[in-house]
């Protein structure tokens, strides 16, 4: 948010982890992050890394330890749920832990995201479904099973 005109991360910079994420997916992601190349200054992010299975987490840590020797200037952010801080990945990387609290007000964060997710030219795209021609939206409910 310090550079409002800089684009959001690309698809190759983010890995959204689930219990079904495979070691191969994590390996490809870590290789993109840790093997030096001329891709610029990307910041790679693993979201919900605490949800990885034990086996995948062990293999990911081994690969990280092996590959980090090839590149000392990598940029990797691993985001985990604080309620699962004792799972494998948060424990293995605990020496790098930083407790993160949003530093900007919610309204300012929403405005920043609206700037990046608004469709420039309204057309007959899926963006017309969401308010203010946004190309993403969140639909939620406090009750389960209401078809959202």
Automatic annotation (TrEMBL):
Classification via InterPro entries: RNF213
GO MF terms listed in the record are: ATP hydrolysis activity; ligase activity; ubiquitin-protein transferase activity
Provide the protein name: RN213 ligase
For the keyword Ligase, the answer is yes
- One GO term of the biological process aspect: sprouting angiogenesis
Q: Which UniProt keywords apply?
A: Ligase
Q: Which GO terms describe its cellular component?
A: cytosol; membrane; nucleolus
């Amino acid at each position: 948010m310090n550079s409002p005109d800089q684009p959001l991360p690309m698809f190759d910079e983010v890995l959204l982890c689930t219990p079904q994420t495979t070691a191969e997916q994590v390996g490809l992601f870590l290789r993109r992050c840790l093997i030096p190349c001329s891709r610029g200054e990307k910041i790679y992010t693993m979201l919900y890394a605490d949800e990885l299975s034990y086996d995948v987490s062990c293999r990911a840590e081994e690969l990280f330890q092996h590959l980090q020797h090839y590149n000392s200037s990598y940029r990797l952010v691993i985001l985990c749920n604080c309620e699962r801080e004792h799972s494998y990945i948060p424990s293995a990387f605990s020496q790098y832990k930083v407790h993160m609290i949003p530093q900007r007000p919610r309204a300012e964060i929403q405005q920043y995201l609206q700037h990046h997710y608004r469709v420039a030219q309204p057309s007959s795209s899926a963006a017309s479904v969401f308010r203010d021609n946004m190309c993403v939206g969140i639909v939620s409910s406090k009750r389960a099973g209401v078809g959202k």
